[in-house]
Amino acid sequence: MHEPKISLFDLSDPIHKTASDLFDVGRTLPIISPHGHVNPELFANEMARFTDPASLFIIPDHYVVRMLISRGVTFEQLGIFPKGSEGLQCDPREIWQIFCDHFSAFDGTPTGMWIENALAMVFGIYEKPTSQNANSLYYMIQDAIDRLDMTPRSLFEKFNIEVLCTTDDAFDSLDVHQVIQKSGWTGHIKPTFRADRLVHIELPNWSDHIHQLEEVSKREISTYASFIQAFEDQRAHFKTMGAVATDLSVTTPFTCHLSPGTVEQLFQKGIKGSLSTDEQNLFIGHMIIEMARMSSDDGLVMQLRAGPFRNYQTAVFEGYGVDRGFDIPVRVEWPRNLKPLLDSFGMDRRLRMILFTLDESSYSRELAPLAGAFPTIKIGPPWWFNDSPNGMMRYFEGVMETAGIDNTVGFNDDTSAFLSIPARHDLWRRMSALWLAKLHHQGQISRQTAEMRMADLSYHLAKRGYNLED
After folding, report:
1. Do the first three CATH levels of 14-48+151-465 and 49-150 match, i.e. the same topology?
2. pTM for this structure?
3. In terms of CB atoms within 10 Å, which end of the chain has fewer, N or C?
4. Per-residue model confidence as pLDDT tens digits over 166-211
5. Topology of 14-48+151-465 in CATH?
6. Confidence band of 324 (pLDDT split at 50, 70, 90)
């Protein structure tokens, strides 16, 4: 591993000098990656290879794709084709050239910083991508990933990753994870039970996902009760495969209790695709409480994410599918929406629920007071649009003084771009060091406390928060 290109530290500033010293406490600690979207197939074979620079840095990264689309690049130019266009391909060298032509669009963004630091740390490339050097950079990266020491497994070890949790559909068989575990490789890759496609009854193909759950659980699903049994069976399967957490993303964290008769009626209408919007919201709100009940029973950490208006651009969603960059943050209200759940499980110490938001305005007003009172609640790190130097500092200043450091869970890199993981954790650790240095220089904490908390924010909080301690 090489040094990053961008350090963020101005060593002529006393606070930054202290931050640099504190960063040294955290920089060599292993990476805990408890939530992300890296494809586990990368690690199923010891000789698995990356294919090309475009598939490494561009196509899987929705941060990159959405910015390029905003600059007038088309999906097809990026090798992303409409549904039903299987077999079409695009030369990765052309995709890379377009990316480099527009790289200035990432100036001053965390995405630009991650990419430049990933190029530096992994490949020793300190040049900024431009139209002029696109071809030479492409072949430098291609030559590197063709080497035997650049396999995903070898990089996992070079990156000093202790645990990497993937995100897997709730009806996934986890065959790939079984292959990894039986291969004899010592890297820790754990699945995460992502419930979105089973909980979001409003999805046009929701009944298809129910059939997939039937197949993998080998249980006929004709009633809500049989659905819940298959749901719980799959959670148990995930747990036997090493899963420590579940994951669910919603626009609003509305929760409600429904009677058995009502939820059965909604389930049957959902199978037929005849639910109203209000009925869909009731079903989802009921399922959020059901997931809290299940986590209280089986011990899987419950991650609840609120704030994205998914698939905002209808034509893009219908033409190209989900996760194409048109998700937009909206305002979120937590206390009233979560009250039914917290009335039932808020004091149940068997439950650990990690809350994530895209609405920064709720940090100090709602999330921090909730986490500072309920033993079940932890606050997740700055997520998605807030995962930036400024976003991280706003998080520290909005959350910590009310919730306390120990009611947070360190950092999630939340990425599908495997090579960016060290750069993302490097950024979090640097911003953690800057925040702690500021507290120290203000006399709020001692140097010893700052060093201890640096290790916590870099490593221990994530390990404790996700029950990954030995």
Report:
1. no
2. 0.96
3. C
4. 999 999 999 999 999 999 999 999 999 999 999 999 998 999 999 9
5. TIM Barrel (3.20.20)
6. confident
Backbone angles phi, psi at 266, to 5 degrees: -65, -40
Residue pLDDT, tens place only, 199-219: 999 998 999 999 999 999 999
Residue 161 CA, chain-centre distance (Å), reads 16
> So what's the architecture of 49-150 in CATH?
Orthogonal Bundle (1.10)
- Report whether 210 contacts 167 (CB < 8 A): no
Tell me if residue 341 falls in helix, strand or coil. helix
Task: Summarize pLDDT for 351-383 with one digit per residue, the tens.
Answer: 999 999 999 999 999 999 999 999 999 999 999
Could you give the count of Cα atoms lying within 13 Å of 19 in the half-sphere of its Cβ? Answer: 23
CA distance linking residue 163 with residue 299, whole number of Å: 19
Tell me the sheet residues that pair with 169: 194
